[in-house]
Amino acid sequence: MPYDSGDPPAVESGQESWLHGWNVIDVSDWEVIDREPVGSSDPLWLAQPGSESTLWLHKSTVIPTNGEEQGEDWAEAVSTRIAQLLGVPCAQARLCRRKGRRGSISLSLNAEGYSLVHGGDWLEAAGVPEFENWQQRSSRGHQRRSSGGTIQRGHNLENIRDALAHVKAPLSLPDDLTAFDAFAGYLLLDAIIANRDRHEFNWAVMQSLTDGQPDRLCPSFDHGTTLGHNLSDHKRRTCDREAFSRRATAHRFEHTRKKCLTLTELSIQALTMASPSGRGFWTHQLARSDLSRLELQTLRLDGVSEVTAIFIDELVTWNVRRLKDAIDCGQR
Question: In the chain, what is the straight-line distance between the N-terminal and C-terminal CA atoms, in Å?
C-alpha cells in the first residue's frame, strides 16, 4: 500500500474531535534526517520520536520584510481538512512549532516498494511532446517561457492524461477511477482552496519497484500557499472575495501571455476530460461535502484571527458555488 489515507500516527494524546490532528506539536527536538531539495522555505525531513522510520516534512512559515508572519501552516492544515471532506487523497498535515517558530509538518508519502517520481520527471520520461521542465531550465538561469508567447509549455491536461494512461488511481478511491480522474479531483481541490501552485513538481507518481504491482498516482501534497495565506488582515477585511477568486489563475499550466484559465475553468476542463465514473464521482463529492463548520473550527487554529477565519469561509463558499454553477451549466 503506497500511502496511508487515514489519520496520521498519533503524536500527542488528546480528545478525538473534528480538529484531530490540528493541535500544535513541538518538533524542536525531532532529529533532522535530510533536507528536501524541492521547496523555497528550506524544508527539512524530521524523524518522529519513538518511530524513527516515520518521517515528516517540516516547513516554517514565511516572515517577509514587513514582519507580518504568513499563514502557510494553517493553510496547509485547512486545505488538508477540505481535501478529506471531498475525498481527495492527500498528505496528512499537522501544525507545529520548531524552536519557537510556527510551521507545519506533512507525513511522508514514500513507501517501501515504491519510488516517488515528480510529475516533471514523469512527463519527461514519457517523452511528452514539447514539454519543458521549468525547474531544470530555471536552475540554469533561463526563463520559464518559450518563444511564441507560450508559457509552461507541455504541462497541460492532455499531456498529463496521456502520461498517466497506465497509472492507477490512489487506493482510497473507487476502483473504476483512473489516475487522471484522481488528478481532476486534485484540480477541483485547487479551485476550492485557491491553490495556484500545482506545477509539475507539486504532483507525483508512486512508481512500483515490484513486479506485478501497478504504478499509482501519489496523493496530493504541498497546500501551504493557498487560501490567501500571504494577505494581511486589512486586505482580507477589505478585498472583494469574488474578484479575488476570479484572479486565481492556473498559471502553472501551459498558457499564453494573453490567455490563462482560472482554476475553476481548468478544473471544469479536467472533469470534462475525465471518465464518466470520475466525473460523476467528483460531482457527487462536491455536492455532498459539508464545509459549514469551517469558520468555527478554523478560528481555533494557531495564528488564525477572526478576520482570517471569516475570509477563508467566504472564499471557500464562493469557490464552491462557482464550481457548482459551472457544473450545472455544463449538464444542461
Answer: 40
